[in-house]
Every structure is written in C-alpha cells, then in structure tokens.
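User: Here's a chain of 292 residues. Predict its fold as tokens.
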Amino acid sequence: MGLSQSKPPPPPIFLDQPWRQINFGNNTTDLQYVEYYKPQAEEQQLRILLHGPVGAGKSSFINSVNSVFQNQVCRHALVQNSAQDCCTKEYRTYRIQRGNSNNFYPFVLNDMMGLKNVTRRNRRIHVKDVKRALKGHIKDGYTFNPECKISKGDRFYNRAPTENDKVHVLVCLVDANTVSLMGDDTVEAIKDVRDEAAELGIPQVAVFTKIDEAFPEINTDVKNVYKSRSLKEKIEKFSADVGIPIHSIFPVKNYHSETGVNPDVNAIILNALRHIIATGDDSLNRKLRFQV
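Assistant: Prediction complete.
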C-alpha cells in the first residue's frame, strides 16, 4: 500500500504581525488631527465624495462618522435594509456637528446613488454623473436617473461651481462580504471613475465596510482587523483589480445594530477619516497654490 498523502494544514487565520498599526481605544492622535483640521484658505471646506456599489455602506459610513463625534449612534443618513435596495436617490451633503454646538467641522461628506445591476449603458451614465459631481456641477437634492445623466438645463445643475462645490477626495466604498463577487462591469465602472478623478487631479481612497460580517475573527474582536490574513488578501486582490494602492485602502466597521459607541470601532473609523482628510487636504492645497 502506498503512503497516504496528508493535506497541508490551512494557513493560520492571523498574520505574525499586523500589517498596519493604529491606536485602539482612545485614539487621540487621529482624533486630534480631525479636531484641529482647518483648510489653509478662509471659509474653505473640504468635500469628500462617497461612491461605490449599492449596499456598500456609504450612508452607514456617514452615520458612523457622525456617531464618533456625537458619542452616540446616529442615523441621520437613511440606510437601506438590504444590499438589493438603494435608499440614496438624491445627491446629499452631510455636515458633521461639533458635539452639541452650532459649529461644524470644515469637511463635508457627499452621498450619491450607488451602482446597481451594472450594464455598459448605465455604467457610462453613472461615470458621467460622478464626473459632474467631482467638478461641482451637481447641487444638493438632485435625483439620479440610471437611464440618463444630469443635463445642463436641469435646475440642479450648477453652471458656475466654486472651489467649495468641487470634490477634493473621492472615496470608493465596497462591501467586504461581496467584493470578490463583483462583476467585471462593476470593476470597470470603479476603474472608469478612478480614471476620471485622476484626470481632474482628485486623489482616491477606498474603504472596506462590513468587515465584522465578512470575517469571524474581526467580529470576535475588532482589534484583529490588521491581523486578519483573509482581509489582507481581499484588500490586495481589490487593489490589483482597480488600481487603488494598498496604503490608500482602509477597512472599517460601521455602526448598524448597536445602541452605543465602542472606542475600538471609533478608532478604526477615525483612522480612515484622518487619512481621507489628509489626502484631500494635500490635493486642495495644490489647487489653491495654482490659483494664487
């Protein structure tokens, strides 16, 4: 009888060393950066545009950022009940309030309709709408139509956008549960949007959402986020597919069913937000220097 060949053991769940270091718990470094952030130009605000497939968690991310600063779970942006539905039909700007004061942080987050049932036609329409948004041509309240892009005659078309209307950093949100199942047309749409943003000199960041649902080791303890081998492999594959470098991809857990905030969840949201703001600020300052 021949010797039976045993299967090699599966790779360990955890990496020997975390592939990124952040301060869990009271993340004062990232919190202070965001708290004291101020654009160089007076009255300027940094605009962050969120895009990605339907169900990726764009609205939940906005709510989660708000929750960090309000120290309670917030649900200002309407969230869909399933990945098949899309609650976001309108172009909406969200400002983040400073605690209980009437002041707001000098950055805003824009939510827009996600990609759904992607075909070559609506992919082109979606990319054109994103490009108009990047250039500041879409006003708050515009209802996206997957069958046609916004026209210059539309009352929500901004013919003369200021620097405050323009986008300074583009954030692609993807669901860690389904990122490996994205069709070619969805991947191509993300790459097309990325190309349009690059042409306009707008940097891009990606955010992996729902990491607690996709990876049991993170659901057990969110501090395992940068120790998870499977998460790192998914991020590497997504980076190779769409061209966003790994150093610009940030995994987060959004608040959804919780009734209170968690310092460790706050820490990874803050870390992502801090890098999004820093990336957009570099782009904004370059633009402002050229205008002088």
